[in-house]
Amino acid sequence: MRRITRIATVGLASAALALSATACGGKSSSDTSSKEAGAAIAYDVGGRGDQSFNDAAYAGLQKAETELKVKGAEAEPTDGEGEADKVQRLTELARKGNNPVIGVGFAYAPAIKKVAPKFPDTTFGIIDDTSVTGANIANLVFNEEQGSYLAGVAAAKVSKTGTVGFIGGVEVPLIKKFEAGFVQGVKDTNPNAKVLSQYLTQPPNFDGFSKPDLGKAAAQGQLDAGADVVYSAAGLAGSGAIEAAAAKGKWAIGVDSDQYNQAGLTKYKDHILTSVTKDVSDSVFDLIKSVKDGKPTTGEIRYGLDKDGVGLADSNPEYKKMTDVITAVDKAKADIIAKKITVKTAP
Asked: Where residue 36 falls among pLDDT bands split at 50, 70, 90?
């Protein structure tokens, strides 16, 4: 698998334009030949190695390389990039014959809207966005609020102080879905519980997805205010929140990937109660497979609790011992699937 380094990406940016804050780019290096063309992903802010959203997408690409024997291409983001850079990145990946080309994150929507019509025989995937549609566009979306509701149930059950925290990376509609589900889950479980909510940055500043120090500072503030469980939906910045919770001997709840099993967070894993997972990995793999099989999937492809597209990880042995918590979470999951509980998508 070919991957452009951040230094190389900066070089591309200076040759063209500044890369966008939420975009990512990766493997599409200038010396990739058409013989190596395969499936490509362009990463979101934070890039591969964020222990969360981008790494989940990468896992899907890895699986495709192994099981489908396709060549993988990655493209990394840089700080402060703009839409023109995303357009250039996606265009380069498509010109090299990669199919599909997948933008990891809603920030790729404007670029895909411009690029997809120019390559009608290439399938473009976009994760977490339904605003851009087309005959060759697949919208891979998730019911994040449902998984977050389960996290809220777990947080309310394990909290001893009755105060829990939510940290959102950037205040955008997608992340507000995480907050809405979490707060509802907490309040439905313990109406007297207090939820401290904070967003790290406001758009167009997307540092809240990429700077761990911001997440760490926010979590420290919530812990000092009495929170003993902190759930962060903040990409790479969330690792800082996990570090802060671990330092205080409190619980952290991870996001997107099963963060208990992320190598970069091993030092803090004992304090990662659970994680709200999104099956980004399989969404990437399934789209690649559909193209390889000659039947490319397009349109909205939604992953919810009913299809295990979102969920709550149980990798931490301590969590597995909490039978009352697991019982409450399982009941909530069943009620959501049965439509006995409707989870809000906005706070």
From this structure: low
Helix (H), strand (E), coil (C) string for 155-197: HHHHCCCCEEEEEEEECCHHHHHHHHHHHHHHHHHCCCCEEEE
Per-residue pLDDT tens over the stretch 134-191? 999 999 999 999 999 999 999 999 999 999 999 999 999 999 999 999 999 999 999 9
Q: Which residues contact 111 (CB under 8 A, 6 or more apart)?
A: 20, 23, 83, 86, 87, 89, 90, 103
Strand partners, 199: 168
Q: Are 199 and 174 in contact (CB under 8 A)?
A: no
Task: Tell me whether strands 137-142 and 101-103 are parallel, antiparallel or unpaired.
Answer: unpaired
- 70 in helix, strand or coil? coil
Question: Is residue 25 a contact partner of residue 46, using CB atoms and an 8 Å limit?
Answer: no
If one counts every other C-beta atom within 10 angstroms of the C-beta of residue 294, the result is 6
CB 273 within 8 A of CB 246: no
pTM for the model: 0.86
Task: Label the pairing between strands 101-103 and 39-42.
Answer: parallel
Strand residue runs (E) in 234-269? 251-256
In this prediction, residue 80 carries a pLDDT of 77
